[in-house]
């Protein structure tokens, strides 16, 4: 059967033609194909911001940010509750699809759970597995004690040369159109103006102190930093870097705070306004991690790991927990066509989202694959709804450039495996 039931029919009808893959699998489909394995790459669920109220983020506004239920950068209680619900949903799906029986006791060959060694990733994996196999005793594997980046999930550049930097900068500049790097921020100008207004920066401690850091808000000349064994980064002092932090905090506050007015510091924001606030962070992620040569550079460890898991003869379920940068770079490295997600304010890699690769065995003797991104809706996040087969998360099909689906919406597994191989060769070809 299809990994997930359809969400709201009205949303489905608004999606592009390729999204018919979102429909629930028919009995006829289930007679033709048997689900054999799923490899899942997940972003952690709701966390507190990466910096606290005493930082520049706190000084940019006269308002008090939400009192978080976890220290900075760690998974919140709400994040744990939502992820448990996602795990419960995957359990019902796996049982319904015949992947596992009820109350399955998995072996190390059946199920593999790997988390980055950051607290928010380990905790996400623990909450997910408690919902997914509550009596299964699933072990969450992580390499280090919290909180340290595991090289498997660390989106670091392992190849950096003048030739690489030149190609990367050219590809990033293309995101800004005719005005290049500066054009990236110029396209964001209305979103910058909105977030500055919602922050009430003009009444902030920074403004009262005439803090020179405020000059960053008018600096659209973003400077990128590429260093070996470090993540791609931005130099301090640009609007994109400074306001990305505020965008991130607002998104998280919107998920965490049930009172919408309070989440917006008393401003009356529409759903479109929240999407504009989140757009800053989406563009920031794209700029850093979706230039093709950057993506294959930073995603290489996960591409190799996912490829190996797909080819493991005994594995039935793999769950990897990392970050939005992991999902963005892996999707780009695999050649996923551009997309914007419905029922989300983050349009690329929402909180708790998961890239899911399914492997099917066909009655025709061939092996097939499907690839989707699965994520909780805003209502499920903000209202802590149960996520069930009758109230499923959103499922959006990801299309791989240049590959064709069959009449039932599936790719040949060999074609998908070839795409992983191409990504690995692209890494080898980096100058």
Beta strand % = 5-15%
- Tell me the total number of β-strands: 9
Overall shape = globular
Evaluate the radius of gyration. Answer: 21 Å
Order of helices and strands: HHEHHEHHHHHEEHHHHHEHEEHEEH
Mean pLDDT: 93
3D structure, described in words:
With 431 residues, the chain is α+β, with helices and mostly antiparallel strands. The chain has helices at 9-13, 27-32, 56-59, 77-96, 119-132, 162-174, 180-187, 189-199, 205-208, 239-256, 260-263, 271-289, 292-298, 300-310, 324-333, 378-383, 413-428; strands at 33-43, 111-115, 224-225, 233-234, 317-322, 354-362, 367-375, 394-397, 411-412. Strands 1, 2, 5, 6, 7, 8 and 9 form a 7-stranded mixed sheet that branches. Strands 3-4 form a two-stranded antiparallel sheet. The termini are far apart. Mean pLDDT is 93; it is low at 5-23.
Features:
single chain, about 425 residues, alpha+beta, 7-stranded mixed beta sheet, two-stranded antiparallel sheet, 17 helices, 9 strands, about 10% strand
